[in-house]
Amino acid sequence: MSKAKLFIVDDHLIFREGLRNLIELEGIGKVVGESSNGKDFLNKIDNIEADLVLMDISMPVMNGIDATKQAVENNPDLKVMALSMNGDEEYYYKMIEAGAKGFLLKDSGIKEIEQAIKTVIDGDSYFSNELLRRIITNLSKPDNKGKDISSILSKREIEVLVEICNGLTNEEIADKLFISAQTVKGHRSNLLSKTNCRNSASLVMYAVKNKIVAF
Length: 215
Prior knowledge:
By secondary structure, the chain is an alpha/beta fold.
């Protein structure tokens, strides 16, 4: 199995070097590109094949939100995971709306870094419980202005949404709920449509904001 090809975007050289060394020395993947800001990243990414972009949020010249939005619009298949630190909480939802598939704390341990990278490359979203607790604290107002979620989503859709938040795949959700993977896929599609979410990461944010799940 080939190693994951990663692109790191962060304005701190020491952090980039440290993360690159950690990823490569531990055999998690190979760093195929680096940038110190969003603009430089956009100039490079079209000529580099990367499985995943690790994107800082706050950077000079162009921030991670704008860079992610433009990159994903240009290449919808591009996978981006935000690199987060204390103080970034207000940008979480904007980063997800821009197209990021999840968040990784900058001070995460090697096991979590490896798990996060594999999870997003495999097509799922990734949030640590610590990040979700921060999101709950900072995104406390429901989206639906007092509407009962049960009037928007069916009981089964809510069950599927909870398991998506738990990080389960379609097959794992199917086994747990005793339904087919194809049925789960249908529920996931309905969830995206009813909530106006663009991906699983957006669904997680929706569930947290509307207090469907708690961490």
